[in-house]
Amino acid sequence: MAAKFKVKKGDKVVVMAGRDKGKRGEVLRVDRKDRRAVVAGVNMVKRHTRPAQGTPGGIVEKEATIHLSNLAVEDPKDGQPTRVGFKFLDDGRKVRFAKRSGEVIDL
Length: 107
Description:
Elements: E1 12-15, E2 24-31, E3 36-39, E4 44-49, E5 58-63, E6 65-67, E7 71-74, E8 81-82, E9 84-88, E10 94-98
Antiparallel strand pairs: 1-2, 1-7, 2-3, 3-6, 4-5, 7-8, 9-10
């Protein structure tokens, strides 16, 4: 059974738990199998990389994945964290909407 994900690539999200609680960012990638996402500027880790052709070695800081349960989508109306629901529009499209304000997220 395929899970329904409330978070998509490109969404603006707020981190609700963990060391980066309160930080905001844009979802860069969603890993559906592990239910994790990469968010720009959130959950930064240091990686020690070996020099390769075209890239110098050294300590590189990059984003690590964060579990989807620790993320909440930003309400398009006021930027506060909100839960997400699904509904069908009059033209038959299935869209996500913010439960906080009723505003449609997908356009």
